[in-house]
Design goal:
alpha+beta, 434 Repressor (Amino-terminal Domain), 2 domains, three-stranded antiparallel β-sheet, two-stranded antiparallel sheet, 6 helices, binds zinc ion
Length: 154
Amino acid sequence: MSICEICGKEAENTWKIELGNSKLTACKNCKEHGRTIKKEIKKRKKTGKKEEKKTKRKKRKELVDNYGKIIKKKREKEKLTQKQLSNKIKEKESRIRKIENEKIMPSEKTVRKLEKTLNIELYQEPAKFKGYKRKKDKKKRKTTIGDIIKLKEK
Ligand SMILES: [Zn+2]
């Protein structure tokens, strides 16, 4: 139990917050009025998420989940052996086998060759990330000293 330095009430849980130049102990209700020191870690996390998103945006296309099966199915339909296919796209036969077993991810170059040779599509738009935007971040963060005073008056 400690006392909230903003509203003066006893609180079970308190947070260290930064308000202007001073560091205060605040209760759950009052911590919103300053910058929670603990929350700074969360802020850093948010930046990390942004960076992650950027990376995903850069990598616009991603391989379909069952690329190996698709390649195998189409190759067999075209009556090509793994060796024949490997010759066509100038890759090692063992590599084709590993790709078909989804043990390795083919490089973009290889994917392009496979797509062209087998007339298939192996890349998909990363639909998962489309429209996945959190709008919760728009919450008001800034609180004026005036708000604190009003709060004290209550
Ligand atoms: Zn309080």
